# Entry
Amino acid sequence: MVAEILRRLAATIPVMGVVAIAVFALLHLTPGDPAVIIAGDYATTDDIARIRTRLGLDKPFLAQVGIWLGQVLRGDLGTSIFSGLPVTRLIAQRTEVTLFLTLYAMLISIGVGVPLGIIAAWKQGSLLDRVVMILAVSGFSMPVFWLGFLLVYVFAISLAWLPVQGYVPLTSGLPAMLRHLTLPALTLSVVYMALIARMTRASMLGVLGEDYIRTAFAKGLAPRGVLVRHALKNASLPVVTIIGLGFALLIGGAVVTESVFALPGLGRLTVDAIIRRDYPVIQGVILIVSGVYVLINLVIDVLYVVLDPRIRY
# Structure
């Protein structure tokens, strides 16, 4: 198994190379020129040409790709065109916000979505099952930005229970940080929660009809123990897969959520960089997120063996 994990880690290298080249190509082939934005409205053609030369944008496309890949291999993601700061420093400054927001939203989604899916499967066809599925469909169809503004109006403006926007770092205390992240995490977790609930219900329905489940009930075991210890464990592979794939959903939703709640995270950094055509920042953020996503898929594959010993690589 260790050899397989090492092989999969080695396989991520060409994957990340393809991602890096694709991102670089898409950004540089899309309309727009950062030199024009930096130069301003009253700049002359010579001014724009000098800025393009200083930024290296006048070089051939393949030469730009080679220079950037060489920097990436050395651990250098480049320098922001507008701030002049290293991209690695900008990402490091914003990582804490996005990391804790994503983890908080993931905990809420799993902690609510999995029990709802189990209950809906256990009470299949009942009123409770229908209510859970209606909530799941509604949550999955709800726009993130609309839900964010709704939660702000209810819990921050009307009830004044939670702050409207901003972020408090972990150094100021865990309760203060969670208080500022609760509304954004709830907003971000609703879609993910609905997806997990639906997948858990579907997977549990396929397991509850098995003979060993009926045998466990016939032995007089408590329903809670049968559902959690026997049924959920054998139905967990699709759920774990959705949890891993849903990480990308959370990262995508974080862009909108951080903009709504004015959180200084990677999402806001990406939006600002796209508006300014700050190529190094966009490339660096996408490359880091892609790498994390690949590693999470590797962890999910390893969990398959832990959850189901019958699986062997």
